[in-house]
Structure formats: C-alpha cells, structure tokens
C-alpha cells in the first residue's frame, strides 16, 4: 500500500495520463484544489512522484531538460490509498484564542530581548574592566562567565518564543 494525497490518486488513476511532467501534474492538482499554494502543491507532487518511483509504479525519464514520468506496467491503482491531510485541523477555535497568546508571547519576547541586552552589556563591561584593571580578572572572571552564560540562555529562550509566535501566526 502506498499512501498519497486523495486528489493525486484520482489524477493518477486516469487512463489517459500515461506520461506527464511534474509541472503538468502540479497544474492539474491546483486546478482540482484552487486553494492550494503553489509551493505546497509542488512539494506534495514531488514527494508523491518520488514515492511512486521508489515503488516502480512510475519511471523517471530525462529528455534533455524535460523530465518525464511514465507509468510502468507495475502501476497498480488498487495499492494506492488516500492519506489524511495534516492540515485539516479546524482553525476556528484557535483563531479566537491566538491573539491573547500572541500578545503574551510578544511581551515575553520583548522582556527577553531587554534581558539579553543587559547580559551582553554586563559581559562587555567586565571585559572592559579586565583591560583597565587586569588585577581584578581572576576574581571577576566567574561573574563575566555567568553574564555570558545568561546571554546564551536568553538567546535560546528568544529563539523558542519566536518559533512559537511564528507557529501561532501561520
């Protein structure tokens, strides 16, 4: 059994579709599903074609710059079954709740960025003090390292919060 997109199954089952390009299949897919983004459709088509090539259902032939896919005698539509979409999650309840979450995350992000600047400034000041008062370096070095470690930790927190914001916004 090979799991592929339901629309692609219906397109590939067509008896008239024996040889085609990835672009042609993508255009047929977008025509059948107008809401699909070009990039997403392209990725889905290419992943599907790679799966079908691996299963020897289709054969890839390169003719100059044109890449053709040809159904092989091993193409068996009964072994194709529809995969469930990963993006079919209802977004209605999430949309109402996201604005509050996003605001909270953005406030947190701003605070982390302020804290990061403080830790960086602290570490830079210790370095300046080391140059000006070298005799203090051994006793203050642990404070300098603590400030550096805190700034590294803040960078990690900032990246995590930014990733969460991007996920909620998409």
What does this structure look like?
With 170 residues, the chain is mainly α. It has two domains: 2-82, Winged helix-like DNA-binding domain superfamily/Winged helix DNA-binding domain (Arc Repressor Mutant, subunit A); 92-169. Helix content is 64%, strand content 12%. The chain has five helices and five strands. Strands 2-4-3 form a three-stranded antiparallel β-sheet. The protein has a two-stranded parallel sheet with strand order 1-5. The longest helix is centred in the middle third of the chain and has 41 residues, at 92-132. The protein is elongated. The protein starts with a strand and ends with a helix.
What CATH calls the topology of the largest domain is: Arc Repressor Mutant, subunit A
How many strand elements? Answer: 5
Q: What structural class do you assign from the helix and strand content?
A: mainly alpha
> Which runs of at least 5 residues are low in confidence (pLDDT < 50)?
88-94
- Which homologous superfamily in CATH is the superfamily of the largest domain? Winged helix-like DNA-binding domain superfamily/Winged helix DNA-binding domain
Second-tier CATH architecture of the largest domain: Orthogonal Bundle
Percent helix range: 55-70%
What is the subunit organization of this protein? single chain
Pattern of helices and strands: EHEHHEEEHH
Major sheet size, sense and barrel closure: 3 strands, antiparallel
Top keywords for this entry?
two-stranded parallel sheet, 2 domains, elongated, mainly alpha, 3-stranded antiparallel beta sheet, single chain, Arc Repressor Mutant, subunit A, 170 residues, 5 helices
């Amino acid at each position: 059994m090979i799991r592929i997109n339901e629309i692609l199954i219906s397109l590939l089952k067509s008896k008239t579709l024996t040889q085609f390009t990835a672009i042609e299949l993508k255009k047929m897919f977008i025509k059948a599903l107008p809401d699909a983004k070009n990039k997403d459709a392209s990725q889905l088509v290419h992943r599907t074609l790679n799966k079908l090539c691996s299963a020897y259902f289709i054969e890839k032939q390169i003719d100059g710059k044109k890449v053709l896919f040809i159904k092989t005698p091993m193409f068996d539509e009964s072994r194709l079954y529809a995969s469930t979409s990963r993006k079919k999650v209802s977004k209605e309840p999430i949309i109402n709740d996201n604005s509050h979450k996003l605001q909270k995350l953005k406030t947190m992000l701003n605070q982390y960025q302020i804290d990061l600047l403080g830790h960086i400034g602290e570490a830079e000041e210790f370095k300046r003090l080391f140059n000006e008062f070298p005799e203090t370096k051994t006793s203050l070095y642990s404070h300098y390292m603590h400030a550096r470690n805190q700034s590294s930790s803040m960078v990690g927190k900032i990246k995590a919060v930014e990733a969460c914001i991007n996920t909620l916004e998409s």
